[in-house]
Request: fold
Amino acid sequence: EVQLLESGGGLVQPGGSLRLSCAASAFSFSSYAMSWVRQAPGKGLEWVSGISGSADRTYYTDSVKGRFTISRDNSKNTLYLQMNSLRAEDTAVYYCAKDRSYYDYSGYPYDAFDIWGQGTMVTVSS
Amino acid sequence: DIQMTQSPSSLSASVGDRVTITCRASQSIDKYLNWYQQKPGKAPKLLIYAASSLQSGVPSRFSGSASGTDFTLTISSLQPEDFATYYCQQSYRSLYTFGQGTKLEIK
Reply:
């Protein structure tokens, strides 16, 4: 069964650091872009960061640029999110998601998150 | 960044009702629009990709359509398991964005 399993969440003080991991199984991990999506308590979904399958391209939402770093180890089928200089507003459940490309009749790819992990909670508080 | 605006933010309906949720993009995104369903305490689930294509395993009562920068998710006949929060998401630019969500509640 295709599966994503996040770990590494917890309680951290403002200004602290945390590294999240996402272990993938039962699919060709290196063939797919991956993303991190977060959800603050009682709020909506927010895309945080994405990385290409070969890790040559990375993307970040403005609020985490310069503080968070996405990476992956394709030999270990694992996605990471290094979070530094954490703020209270970073408190959220963090999901990793597999980014699948669907192709229409003309061959154009349309991307969507077809597989999600169960999420890991990050709480930034003193 | 591309902004996605969903309406309504909440909706009350009954089992058997036909329901429509709308998402508007701040610029043209072709049909790079996806819909997700999320139940409390659970991860989101992909329903519709490329504006109108049904994800494998999703019931056919769910459908999506597009008109310019306006996108619609329709549930033809609500079932008890459909009461959840629904999100649209654009994948036109690599800096993906979600709508703010529509909570569908039982009337």
